[in-house]
Specification:
This is Type IX secretion system PorP/SprF family membrane protein. This protein is mainly β. The protein is 1% helix and 51% strand. The longest helix has 4 residues, at 93-96. The protein is globular, with a radius of gyration of 22 Å.
């Protein structure tokens, strides 16, 4: 989707999952992408930092993205995409974890002993990840796939191999028009959109599989969303994959500012006492430098902005 708006775009996301327990996950990401009409190409950069669990495993990634827009026929397009990421992972083995040999038997509740018996244990690691994908779309339909970490880089903190499993995703949606609203009141001379958009996203990584099903309801400039995330009929180690009911509210302003908030109501065994998950999305669609010129595309990419 890099350059999918046919203009520049910048955005930020923040997510805090299970804030009421020690094993919370917090994620921050920022991105910029734009479109190069003379090359039918989109380019972008994406930065993300994720902190996981009580041990504070921290992952930082910097990704370069490229997409090419291929017109198949009138109103029908395909966009292959590529991503190269550098990922750095670090964990404070002796700051965030306590091992038995760090406990002083004569003062078990006192200060812990230094844990430097294994030189290099827990040092940060870096790896290169390659990803590919593709997106087919028409005026109302989109369907795509992605394969992250196709080279399965080694993520082990110690000697030996621990490949990061490839993550596969298949996603699709269809926009059903509910009629036009009043005029937008801007230079587009278009009416405000009213639409219902069912969506599906299936993910598979290692032994884990997950299915998201839901829908957007758009009353421009307001967007509502409701999803169920989980695959209860595919347990792993006898544990169900059911996860959460996700509720979203967003606003797409004519100025190009898009603001979204979502809340995950946890339905797994952790329960809502975990605090669920909160996610905030901010993005700006920048003014189109080619405004007033004939568009190279006779439709817009129909998938929602959130």
């Amino acid at each position: 989707m890099a350059g999918g708006e046919l203009t520049g775009r910048v955005g930020f996301n923040y997510r805090n999952q299970w804030p009421s327990i020690d094993a919370q996950f917090t994620t921050f990401s920022a991105y910029y992408d734009t479109y190069l009409p003379e090359y039918n190409s989109g380019i972008g950069i994406h930065v993300m930092q994720d902190t996981e669990g009580a041990a504070k495993l921290r992952s930082t990634s910097i990704s370069a993205l490229y997409s090419y827009e291929l017109k198949i026929s009138d109103g029908m397009y395909f966009r292959p995409g590529f991503q190269v990421s550098y990922i750095r992972r670090e964990i404070g083995f002796y700051e965030n974890l306590i091992f038995a040999n760090q406990i002083n038997p004569s003062d078990p509740f006192g200060p812990t002993l230094p844990g430097t018996d294994i030189p290099g244990l827990g040092d940060p690691i870096g790896m290169l990840s390659l990803s590919v994908g593709g997106l087919f779309f028409t005026e109302n339909l989109w369907a795509g796939f992605s394969a992250h970490h196709v080279n399965e880089p080694n993520q082990s903190f110690i000697d030996g191999a621990s490949p990061l499993p490839m993550k596969l995703s298949v996603h699709a949606g269809y926009r059903i028009s509910l009629g036009d609203g009043p005029m937008r009141g801007d230079f587009t001379h278009m009416r405000r959109q009213r639409a219902f958009t069912p969506t599906v996203n299936y993910k598979w990584q290692g032994p884990f599989q997950q299915l998201d099903v839901g829908a957007y309801f758009t009353v421009e400039p307001i967007v509502f969303g409701l999803w169920y995330r989980g695959l209860p009929f595919k347990p792993v180690n006898e544990q169900s994959n059911r996860d959460a009911i996700v509720m979203m509210f967003g606003v797409n302003l004519l100025s190009g500012l898009n603001v979204g908030y979502s809340f995950d109501y946890t339905v797994s065994k952790l329960g809502i006492q975990s605090g669920g998950a909160h996610e905030l999305s901010l993005s700006w669609t920048l003014p189109n430098g080619n405004q007033g010129k004939p568009s190279r595309r006779d439709t817009v990419l129909p998938c929602p902005k959130f």
